[in-house]
Amino acid sequence: MYKLLLCLRYLRTRYIALASIISVTLGVATMIVVNSVMAGFTTEMQNRIHGIIADVVIDSRSLEGMHDADWHMQQIEHMAGDRIAGMTATVTVPAMLSFQYGGEWITRQVQLIGIDEETQSNVSDFGRYLQHPENRRQMSFLLHEGGYDVRDHQTGPEAPERKQMNDAGWPHRRRVARAEQFNRQLRQSSRRSRQVPAAEAVSGDATPVAPLPDSVVAVSYEEESLYEEEPADPFAARGEPSDPFAAQRAETNQFDAATEQHTGCVLGIALSSFRTPDGEDRFLALPGDDVKLTFPTAGTPPKAISDNFTIVDFYESKMSEYDSSFVFVPIRKLQELRGMINPSSGIGMVTSIQIKLEPGTDGNAVRDKLRTAFPPELYSINTWRDKQGPLLAAVQMETAILNVLLFLIIAVAGFGILAIFLMIVIEKTRDIGILKSLGASGGGVMGIFLAYGLSLGIVGSGVGMAIGLLFVKYINEIADALGWIMGREVFSPDIYYFYKIPTIVNPMTIAWIVLGALAIAVLASVLPALRAALLHPVEALRYE
Amino acid sequence: MSEKLEELLSRRPRTGTEAIRRRQRAGSKSRVGPHLTLTPAVEDCKAKPDRTTAGNSNHLSAVNLARIYRKGELSIPVLRGVNLDVGRGEFLAIVGQSGSGKSTLLHLLGTLDAPDRGKVFFEGRRIDNLPSRNRDVLRNQRFGMIFQFYHLLPELTTLENVLAPLMIAHGTWGFFRHHRRFREVAAELLKMVGLGHRLKHKPRELSGGEMQRAAIARALVAGPDLLLADEPTGNLDRDTGEEIIRILRTLNRGQNLTIVMVTHDLAVAAQADRTVRLVDGRIE
Question: Are residue A97 and residue A166 in the same domain, yes or no?
Answer without folding.
Answer: yes
